[in-house]
Amino acid sequence: MKNKTTLNIILFISIFALASAYFVEYILGYKPCNLCLIERLPYFVAIIIILIGLIINRLEKIILILLALIFAAATILSFYHFGIEQGFFKESLVCIPNNEINILNKEDLLKEFQKTVVSCKDVEFTLFGLSLATINIIISFILSVITFKLFLNYEKNR
After folding, report:
1. Domain total of the chain
2. Which domain, by its residues, includes 11?
3. In angstroms, what CA-CA distances link 5 with 9, 12, 35, 65, 143?
């Protein structure tokens, strides 16, 4: 399979992953935790990098290694989230809403108590019995392996 074809497939998968996350959030009504929001960033970055690569058309090898590193980092981040869900790791400051740390008056504190805060350890939505963090581990790992392999075999796949 040619590198350009694979990059187009990864672009489609990234767009589909983000569209699915927004569908679950806005159409189905499940609020994401802070880690869920952060786990969307690698897909945004991948889309931007692939689109730049398709426009410039000369940085394919650099794009492949960047994508490999991005999806490897996404795999680690998703595994960390999975570990929090399973109780292997404790929730970190990433899981605490930003404004919760800086409350200085009682009015703001009362407003915060009225908000629904989604914990990183609570699995709100599952698909085929798997949390979205688990599904993200699988997708990110597969994409990182594919892009690393394409990078290593770049000359053969041109």
Report:
1. 1
2. 3-157
3. 6, 11, 31, 16, 14
